[in-house]
Structure formats: C-alpha cells, structure tokens
Amino acid sequence: MSTEALTLNNVTVDLGRQRILDDIHLDVSPGSFTCLLGPSGCGKTTLLRAIAGFTPLSRGEIRLGRRALTHLPPEKRETAMVFQSYALWPHMSVEENLGYPLKLRGVTRTERRRKVAEMLARLELSGFEERAVTKLSGGQRQRIALGRALIIDPPLLLLDEPLSNLDAAIRRSLRSELRRLQKSLGITTIMVTHDQEEALQMADQIVLMRAGHVVQVSTPQTLYQQPADLGAARFLGVDNTVTRTPQDPMGESGAVTFGFRTRDAHLDAPPCPQALIRKGRVTECVYTGDGYHVLIDTHDAELFATSATPVAPGTFAALQVPESALIPFGPDDRHLPPLDRHEDIA
Ligand SMILES: Nc1ncnc2c1ncn2[C@@H]1O[C@H](COP(=O)(O)OP(=O)(O)OP(=O)(O)O)[C@@H](O)[C@H]1O
C-alpha cells in the first residue's frame, strides 16, 4: 500500500451565506493518525467531507502527495471514508460487502476471495465470510465497514466518528484495534471525533477546531499540558481557573490566570512548599467512583477538588494544586510559556 502526505492550504468553505471553514492550513505526514477534535458545529465533518471531495472549497487547495485533489470528484481522489452508521449493504453477506469495491474495479472472483480472506484475518473475523451483516454485532459491523474501505488499498483513510454508535466497552477495545490496524497498514488517517479522550488515546497529531478555525495542532501531550488558550483548556477538561494574587505562583508581569484540572486539586494531600493553595467552604460533595469531587466556595471563585473521603457541606477546607499542574494564561487568555518562578508560595 502506498501512503501519502496530505496538505491543506488556505482551505475555506462557505455554505449558503455562512463561512463554515476559514483559512485552514494543515500538514499531515504519511502514515500518521490525525484527529479533528472540537465541539459540535465547529466544522470537523465539513473539513473531512472537503478532503473527500463531497464539499467543494470556496478557496484554497488540498494535495495528497504530489497530486492536487482540489478539483477532483470524490471517486477520483481514491480516499476511503467510514461513517458513524456502518452503511453496509444489508442484503449482502460479509464476503459480498467486503468484495464489492473490488468487484466494481473488475477484480476476478478468485482474487476477491483471497483479498477478502486476508482482510478478515487482519480484522480478526476469519470464518465470517458467509455471515449476513444483519447478524453481526455493532462492533463487528464497524470492523467490516473499515475492511471494506481498506480493501482497495487507498492512500488516505477518512473516519467520521466511526466509534460513536458503539457502547463504551466495545468502543475502547475498537480504539486500540483500529490504531493497530492503521499502524500495520501504515495508512495516513484522519478521524473526526468530539471525544477528547478518544483523540488523546489514538492520535499522533490532534487538530483542535473552534468555529471554523484551527486553534491548535499538536501532539496529544502538548495539547493536554499546554492548551493554546483558555477556551482550548476548558474543552480539554481544565475546569478551574484562578487569577493571581501576591502569594500565588506567578510570572514576571501582567495578570495571570492559572487553570487546573479537578483531578490535580487535592483536599487531603500532604503539604507541599511549591503549590497553589485556596481555602473556602465546601458547598457540594459527589461520589465519582474513585473518590469524591468537592466544590469549594473561595472568596473569589468556586473551585472543584478531589478527596479520597467524603466531606460534609459547610466544612472549611483547603485545596492544594502542585505547581506542575498549573497552566498559566496571559491577559489575552493565551497560554504563557512555562512558569519561571523564584519565590516561595504561600
Ligand atoms: N449543508 C449545509 N448548509 C449550511 N450549513 C451547514 C451545512 N452543513 C453544515 N452546516 C453548518 O456548518 C457548521 C459546521 O458543521 P459540521 O457538521 O462540519 O460540524 P461538526 O464539528 O462536524 O459538528 P458535529 O460534531 O455536531 O457533527 C454548523 O454550524 C452546521 O450547521
């Protein structure tokens, strides 16, 4: 299989009078797995459809390797797409579904059988040839849909929320299966998801989108630890913010907002010299399975923290966040470089 780099330059899409995608630039390296991540309506599916050729560009260009795709119809782009709904032919068997794209390309019956058997082995579904697709589980159907997309050796695989119809356990196991398959084939892959956990677990590169724009392109680790702005941070589970005070950790100048995740704010941690501390009254305490989430009303903000034991509302409590878990943002809400701190923190 040949796999290729994808390049988007200046990609802009207007639908009706509305600008849906605005000046998108993106480089996707060959064989990598990229997730388009963002809230509902931010333009993820439109971008995927534009790459597939189903949505025309108003401006810009799309290249796959040396080929310009921009003006090619979908069937000439040779990209494969898998949707949320499995879109299998219900009246056909597994073998017929998988072999259909080969049949359309004039591949002989013997060769089709060989390729279908090979694909079923890759999907760990050997022996399912004769099975009606209506008699498969949701996870099996989605694997067949994936196999049908891959059987023609496409240079680019496009996935539109392929796991979102499946229940949580199947979804988790299919994530690693899909990633393993993608790596073994080395196929350049772009997947749309609104699920940050899914993107963080699967992607080599995440494209975070908001309102038709790309906010950040980075590895999962960088996106999680250094979100580009406060909006990105909130989308990635940073649910607490505090503004600096004289005794807090701080940068050199200007107002700083620190974001932190609830999981990093502890009520029962041993005191640590370099930490942010906030005190207040507990207003809520809910069980989360692996502990408790506690809401604390401090004098300037309501903050969430974790506790190993339940805490009664009304109790006076102090939360502590280690310095390493604080994400600093400047007055314009943009992420600041890592803290360079010399002073002790109260
Ligand atoms: N055919 C269309 N005509 C006009 N507007 C459209 C059309 N298709 C989508 N939109 C609008 O474009 C915006 C982006 O939609 P899109 O489906 O790409 O978002 P998304 O990020 O994939 O959302 P979701 O996660 O909910 O699927 C939305 O505001 C949507 O209403």
UniProtKB/TrEMBL annotation:
One of its GO terms (biological process) is quaternary ammonium group transport. Transmembrane segments: none annotated. CDD domains: ABC_Carb_Solutes_like. The keyword Transmembrane helix does not apply. It holds the Pfam family ABC_tran. Residues 6-236 form the ABC transporter domain. Keywords: ATP-binding, Cell membrane, Ion transport, Iron, Iron transport, Membrane, Nucleotide-binding, Transport. Gene3D superfamilies: P-loop containing nucleotide triphosphate hydrolases (3.40.50.300). One of its GO terms (cellular component) is membrane. One of its GO terms (molecular function) is ATP binding. It comes from the Bacteria. This is ABC-type Fe3+/spermidine/putrescine transport system ATPase subunit. It comes from Vreelandella songnenensis.
